[in-house]
Amino acid sequence: MNAHVQYAVEQTMQLLAIDSPTGYTRNVTDYLLETLTNLGFSPVRNRKGSVCCTLGGEGNPLALAAHVDTLGLMVSGIKANGRLRFTRLGGPSLSAVETENVSVITRDGKRYTGVIAVENASVHVNRELENAKRDEKNLEVLLDELVSSKEDVEALGISGGDIICLHPRAHVTPSGFIRSRFLDDKLSAGMLLALAKAVADKDITLTRKVTIFFSVYEEVGHGASTGLPEDTEDLLVVDMGCVGEGLSCTETQVSICAKDSSGPYDYAMTSELIALAKEKKLDFAVDVYPAYGSDAGTALRAGHDIRYALIGAGVYASHGYERSHVKGVENTLGLILAYVTNA
């Protein structure tokens, strides 16, 4: 893989190692601020927590957006037996979180590990285990602590509203597959950091003003409602590309989204991306996402007068234990670099 792709993957792994479920993103934005500052830029974090960084260039202002908030859970109650009830942050698939390792983070910074299990989870005891419904009522968090009552758990400092982080289990295989929770959307954030490094190293010359924007509330629907530069004319959202039945994209391609649940993306801007992908001989697919929303829709609902488009590396098993490939990064980053230098 080339140096830009390698850096994007390396940064993705760094970001994945930082817990950042929606509402608990300060640590990951600290990392973004430090990394971008070390590259020679002047990033800013707004009151809402998003990070915005202008990379340079002049004219026709373009913003590229990714989000660094992830899916997660929050303690909603403590059971009499010391198990934790939870509520979801965003929309993690409950069928995919059962048996997942977690960390519970208290308001005063204590951290405890645990695991998510369905109630009465022993198959040798519960003959109805396979038929049990998996929902927030029947799933629970078992702490790796010697607790057997609500009072025992409270003595640890755990209470309602504490954050529960799902362990990402990030891994790159020898064959190039990238497997982890939260590739949506830290894989895209890693690519935007690679764009910044390419500019800092003078490997590319920007042909327009380019700003990168990292939102922190995308998973709950209001990520890019504020914080984009006021002069933004075009918004290119870089988010996961959908892979699944009925769609043509694979994990090795860059997906160009023509329409999602919010409606069609800007026809002219999307056509520019398709034409550029063809010109650069990138491996791409154009798809309609049946159950999807992005920061573009959020920005539009907030009243931004912009053109808008969406691209991303193909990701399978979204909102579960996700999988992409370094070739998907190569094709997506290739399209990003081409768009900021050719547009």
Key terms:
six-stranded antiparallel β-sheet; globular; 343 residues; 8 helices
Radius of gyration from the alpha-carbon trace, in angstroms: 21 Å
Order of helices and strands: HHEEEEEHEEEHEEEHEEEEEHEHEEH
- Sheet-strand content, in percent, reads 25-35%
Calculate the mean pLDDT score and round it.
Answer: 96
Number of extended strands: 19
- Overall form: globular
Number of helices: 8
Structural class: alpha+beta
Q: Which ranges are low-confidence, i.e. pLDDT below 50, for 5 or more consecutive residues?
A: none
> How much helix, percentage-wise, in residues?
25-40%
**Span between termini:** 25 Å
Biggest sheet, in brief?
A: 10 strands, mixed
Walkthrough of the structure:
With 343 residues, the protein is of the alpha+beta class. Strands 1, 2, 3, 12, 13, 14, 15, 16, 17 and 18 form a ten-stranded mixed sheet that branches. A six-stranded antiparallel sheet has the order 5-4-9-6-7-8. It has a three-stranded antiparallel sheet with strand order 10-11-19. Helices cover 27% and strands 28% of the residues.
Blueprint (SSEs and pairs):
Elements: H1 3-16, H2 26-38, E1 44-45, E2 51-56, E3 62-67, E4 72-78, E5 84-89, H3 94-97, E6 101-105, E7 111-118, E8 139-143, H4 150-155, E9 163-166, E10 171-172, E11 177-180, H5 183-200, E12 210-215, E13 234-238, E14 241-243, E15 254-260, E16 263-264, H6 267-279, E17 284-288, H7 295-301, E18 307-316, E19 322-325, H8 326-342
Parallel strand pairs: 3-12, 3-13, 13-18, 14-18, 15-17
Antiparallel strand pairs: 1-2, 2-12, 4-5, 4-9, 6-7, 6-9, 7-8, 10-11, 11-19, 15-16, 15-18
